[in-house]
Write a structure and sequence with these properties.
The complex is a heterodimer.
Chain A lengths: L1 H32 L3 H8 L9 H15 L5 E5 L8 E6 L17 E3 L5 E2 L7 H10 L5 H25 L16 H14 L1 H14 L1 H4 L2 H6 L3 H8 L18 H11 L5 E7 L7 E6 L11 E5 L5 E5 L4 H14 L5 H30 L10 H30 L7 H22 L2 H26 L4 H6 L3 H26 L8 H7 L1 H15 L1
Antiparallel strand pairs in A: 1-2, 1-5, 2-3, 3-4, 5-6, 6-7, 7-8
Helix pairs in contact in A: 1-4, 1-5, 1-13, 1-14, 2-4, 2-18, 5-7, 6-13, 7-12, 13-14, 14-15, 14-16, 15-16, 16-18
Chain B lengths: L1 H17 L2 H8 L5 H26 L1 H24 L13
The chains are: A alpha+beta, B mainly alpha.
Chain lengths: ~525, ~100
Amino acid sequence: MSQGFRQSQAGLHTWSGLLVGWILYLIFLNGSVSYWREEITRWAQPEIGATQNVQTVAHGAIAHLTKVAPSAKSWQIELPSERASGAITTYKPKGKPVSGGFRRPDPTRTLIGPDGQVATARDTEGGDLFYRLHFDLRYMPVIWGRWVVGFCAMFMLVAIVSGVITHKKIFADFFTFRPGKGQRSWLDGHNALAVLALPFHAMITYTGLVTLMVIYVPWGVTANYPSLKAYYAQSIPKTKPLKATGQAAPMADIGLVLKSADEVWGGGHAGLIRIENPGDKASRIVVTRRASDKLVDGRWEITFDGATGAVRSSVAPQSSGMIARGGMIGLHAGRFAPLTLRWLFFLSGLAGTAMVATGLVLWIAKRRQRLPDPARPYFGFWLVERLNIGAIAGLPLAMTAFLWANRLLPVNLANRADWEGHAMFLTWGVTLVHAFVRPTRRAWIEQLSATAILLIALPIFNLLATDRGLPATLAAGDGAVAGTDLTLLALGAAFAAIVLAVVRHKPGTDRRKPARVATQPAPRVELKPALAEVEA
Amino acid sequence: MILLSALLNLGGFFALCLAMDRHHLTLQGRKPTSGRRWRLRGFGALALTASAATAIRGWGLTNGIIGWIGLLTLGAAIVLLGLTYRPTRAPPRRFDL
C-alpha cells in the first residue's frame, strides 16, 4: 500500500513538475532577481547617484511641483527607500482624471535627483521589468499572465508536497551529494537543493499564491460582498475629497511634516506623500509609510492639515485577517529585509531556481540511458531536451541581453524602455531556435559561455565607458551599484564554472566512475594509525 | 551576533553530519560509538538552538526567526559542499568529543 502510494506520488511529482517546469524556472529566476529590484533600477540609471538626504529630495520635489503645477488637484511624491535613489513626482490636474498605467508612466511623471533638482535619466524599467515579469509575464493582458503564474504556482505546491512524499531518504541523504555519477548526481543535487531550502520553497510558493488570492479564489469575498469593487472599497477605504476654498495659504514645511510622521510611527519612514489641494487653505497631506519599515505589508497612513501641519488622523492595519495576509505578502516580497537577510532570500531563491532546473535535467538524464538509439530520440525526449536548453541556458542569456540593451541603446530612442524588454525577448527567441538546431552539447556550451562572457563584460564596460565603474562606486560607498556589478561578476564566474564542467564532462563516462570512487577510501583508512601517532 | 549565529549553525550541522554513520565513516575512518553519536547529536541540537537565540538577539524577534531559518539552509548547504569537495589528499582529522 505504502509503496503504491509513494509510486503514485512519484509519477505526480514528475509530470506536474515537467508540465510547468519551464515557466516555474522563469518565475523563480526573475523572482529571485527581484529581491534586488531597487538596486537593478539604480544600476540601470547611472545618471542618478545615491541619495544622501531624503529631506533635500522632498523639498526639491515640492519646489518642482509648485513651479509646474501650482493649481493641480493633487500632487504625489514617491520618496526613495534606503536602497533606491531620487524621487518621482506626479500630479493630477483639476478636472477629469487622466489614467496612467504602470508600464506607460503618465506624462506628469518627473524624476527628482538626489540633489533635489529635476533629473533626466535614460528611459528604462530597470528592476521593475524582472519584478513584473515574475507574476504578470509579458506581451499578454496582465490578468492572463497572473492566471498562468497562479496555475504554475499551484502545480509547484503539488510538486513540493508530492516530492517530499516521494523522497525516500530525506534525513539519511541530508548531507549527500555524489558528483560525476550521471543520473545519481542530478537526483542528489535536486534533492539537496529542494530539502535544504524546503522552508523557503514552501513559504514562497504558498505566500505567492496568497498575494493574488483574491483573483484566484474570489468566492469568499463574493459571498459576502455584492462585488469585488465593494470589497476593495471597504477594505481600502477612500477618504472623501476635500473641497478647495479658493483661498491661497502657504503650505506647511514638508521637512517638519516628515519629521512628525517619523515620530508618530516611532522611528518609521515616509515612503509616499500625497497632497490634496496644494496651496489652498483647505489642503491635506497624506503620508504613507515605507514598505521596508515593517514585515507586514499594509497601509500605515497619517493625514496632516496641509496649511498648519497638524496631525488630523492616522490609519494602521487593524483586522487580524489583514495582518495575516499582509505578513505573508511581506514575507514573500521581502521588502522588510535588511541586507544580510536579503542575501539569504536571494540565495534561497537561486536554490529554488536550480531545483527546478535540475528537476528538468533529471527528467532527461533518467530517460537517456533507456533510449534505443541515442542519435534519434523519440519526439517527447527531443522536445524536452531542447526546451531545457532554451529555457535553462537561454533565459539567463536573455536577461543579460536586457542589461546590455540598457547600456547600449541610444538614450533618445523612442519607446526606449520597451525596446530594452524587446531586446530580452528577441534574444530569448534566438536562443530557443539555437537550442533546436544545434547539437545538444554544443548548444549548452555555446549559450552558457555566451552568458558567462556577457555577464563578466558588463562591469568591464561600466568601468571603461561610464563614470560609474567599480572603483568609482566602491570609493563613493555606493553599495547598490557596486554590489550589482560585483554580483554580475560572480554570476559570470558561476556560469564559466558550469561551462568548464560541461566541457570536461565526457558523455558516457559516468557509469564507469563509481568503481573508481569506491576504491578511494581504502588508502585513507590505512593512514589512520600513522596519523594518530603523529598527533599523539 | 549574526556572524556568531551563522558559525553556531555551521558547527551544529557539522556535528549532526558527523553523528551519521556514513559520514563519520568517511571523515573518521570508522563508525561512531553509540555514546559518541548521542554526544554529537546533543551538541548539534544545542548549537542550532544557540544559533536561533543569537539570531533573535542580533536581528530582533521577527527578522531573527526568518533569518535563522535562512541560516539553517546556508549552514547545511556549506556542510554538504564541504563534505563533497573536501581536499581528499589531506589525511582525515580526528575530532574527539
